[in-house]
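#structure-requests
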Amino acid sequence: MRLSLHPRLINDAFSDPGLFIPFMFQRRALLFDLGDLSHLSARELLKISHIFVTHMHMDHFIGFDQLLRLLLGRDKAVHLFGPTGFLEKVEAKLSAYTWNLIEEYENTLVINATEIQAGQALVQTYTSSNHFRPVEIQREFPFTGNLLSEQSFSVDAVILDHKIDCLGLSVKEHFSVNIIKEGLEELGLPVGPWLREFKDALYEGRGAAEEFPVTWRDQDKECREKVFTMAELTERIARISPGQKITYLVDMIGSPENTEKAVRLATGSQHLFVEAPFLDRDGDIARRKYHLTAREAGLIASRAGAKELTIFHFSPRYAGREGELVNEAMDAFRSGR
């Protein structure tokens, strides 16, 4: 099965955390955390539509300026989410620069920022055309766990304890649509933008008898079209399977309450990315710094029934000894103890 989401950590396990999640066959990506972005190309950064910041410690938020610099002068809207205090920090970043020449830009950059608190979400919009001052009165909405819901996927969060609020994040496809190449060849259909439209029609729940026109241009630039019913086209070219679930947990103390929240969020994940800064024998340091041990990370993955585990955010004290962290986490993951 070809996966639609291809998550990858943007830095090595000792460097700033961050998870880049591009969508196959789309010029779109999500980003979990906003630390050092130097390993992402400008092309990759421009694909990002939504950014979810777990908390505003420097190693999770310093990339804001780099991204802002790249996006200035472009006609683009980007959506940012973060925990308690997020709007204040975003406004501080934006107000740190002088914008007296920005009105000369032809395009408008729009930043939609959402602050997640217990039970509520606060939303504010900032635009380059308004010198990044708040555009309107702050809006308030109830928060029950969902941050984003679209036709094909959703993003959920829980508030974890890192001595400050820190978001645990999970993205889940509603279902996955894989295109059968042999089916396309049998029907004489090329790969093209129409496939995205077809997938969207499936996510919208179009009726089986509804007609779906496939249009494209041939090698001579002539417009071609074939019309199918949704049922016929789905049977011939689509393989539908349960969607992926990807969970990202970082900067949390391994308390019983945090662990329960993390397990609930991560349950059923195909891939769980979870911090493991310390070995279990250094658990007193982990607790003092409000972080997990590698063993605690593995136990969360085991209890959540995750299919795959990746640990990261290692303390520099283990430089050259990362294998110890990996072994401890994987032993707990496999054994459940």
